[in-house]
Amino acid sequence: MIKKQGLADVQIFNNQKTHEEMDELLQWGDVIVLQSSMGVDMVAMVARLKKEGKTVVGDYDDLSFSLSPFNPAYKTMGTKNVKVEHGEEEGYIWKDGVDGFSLNANLLRYRSLQDILKMFNMITTTGNYIKNVYGEYNPNISILPNSIDFNLFQPFPKKDNKQVRIGWTPSDSHYSEIWMVKRVMRRLFKKYGNKIKFVVLGSLFELDKEFNGDEMERSAFIGLDTYPLKLAALDLDIGICPLDDNEFNRAKSPLKWSEYSAMKIPSVVSRLEAYACVDDGVTGLVAGTEDEFYEKLCELVESKELRNKITQNAYDKNYQDYNLDKNAMLWVDAYEQAMENVDLPEMQEGDLLTQEVGV
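Given the sequence above, the corresponding structure tokens read:
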């Protein structure tokens, strides 16, 4: 969007580029933006770029080391062994040295994240929770709200569905919510039967074991370039945004609610920091417990008038506050501020960078 509006020259990294092409990009840029960077190699690269006079910005949208152990990414991000009990049986789902899980490697990666955060000219993130956590390592943090490109997120005309279509778009990071969602949807099917349809766009294949083809329609994730079209094609009447109350989720942004709203889909969201922007009963329905989540969904299933009211309010709120056309300048302002933050923090004797890279 910055490039489209002519606010700056922009080039994007991608995995298809050769090392030579990547190096040319690094030399070309005045501001280098790195997403979710960590690892000793990245620490060394940031040190080199700063030595060459580049402004380096780190962008983080998650607290990666606060993952649920049910997230597959825990394999490379988990910093503790995890034992679970099931009835009278117990066992490890993550144990050091088993199935490629290495506490030493993960702790080294975590330490590298702490070091690299100190080095950036600026950190950008999507909300206050990450800002407060990462502010311990670097005070130069700018909040850039996840925003919607309304040129891409455009709803299709609604079909005259005989069923109310309730949608969820979960990634692997939402595995810890799967049990609550199954219980809530099972209660809804018990009450409404074939009057509703559960529509899932995502990779949580565990759901296939719970719901049959008459109850659930599931599609795997597709590329980001076609994701808005796929979301529109799902023809949802209601969206759900469930979150367990844990640190990883408290650091999330309201992006799912924004995407539903841009597609004119009313949603039920969890009462957590991520959805503090949602006005209960106006721009969405907010639920603090599993029972409340079920009850709020019942309200939307039974009232087309309520769905229509929330749909328009949520769309207007997002078009006003989370519109990328309007918000692109926030990124430019942040990067210009980053260029003024030129000092590289002094590395201490115990820091990973000094130990491993010798800078």
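The CA atoms of residues 79 and 103 lie 6 Å apart. Try to locate this feature in the token string yourself.
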